[in-house]
Amino acid sequence: MESLLLGLAVLACPVGMGVMMWLMGRGRRQTLGPRPGNEQQIALLRAEIDQLKAERANDRARSEY
Questions:
Q1: Coiled-coil regions in this chain (predicted)?
Q2: Per-residue confidence (pLDDT) for residue 42, from 0 to 100
Q3: 1 and 28 in one domain?
Q4: What pTM, to 2 d.p., does this model score?
Q5: CA distance 52 to 65
Q6: Are residues 24 and 43 in the same domain?
Q7: Residues 29-63: tens digit of each pLDDT
């Protein structure tokens, strides 16, 4: 009887951790994907990246001469 209780105690932690990971992963799948309004922010950030790349290219061109 003691070995059964010891076995259950030893398995409780990994089994509980596995269940928690499964539940967290399940909840995350439901929230994935772009939220409304994020597309505009993504477009602004991409435009800013393009602007910074252009400035960086201009700075490199100036430093070569």
A1: 35-62
A2: 92
A3: yes
A4: 0.44
A5: 21
A6: no
A7: 666 666 667 889 999 999 999 999 999 999 888 88
| Beta-carbon contacts of residue 42 (< 8 Å; ≥ 6 apart) | 34
Regarding whether 1 and 19 lie in a shared domain, the answer is: yes
Positive/negative CA dihedral, 30, 31, 36, 42 = negative
SS3 for the chain is: CHHHHHHHHHHHHHHHHHHHHHHHHHHHHHHCCCCCCHHHHHHHHHHHHHHHHHHHHHHHHHHHC
Residue 34: partners with Cβ closer than 8 Å, 6 or more residues away = 42
- Indicate the range of 9-18, 23-32, 52-61 predicted with least confidence: 23-32
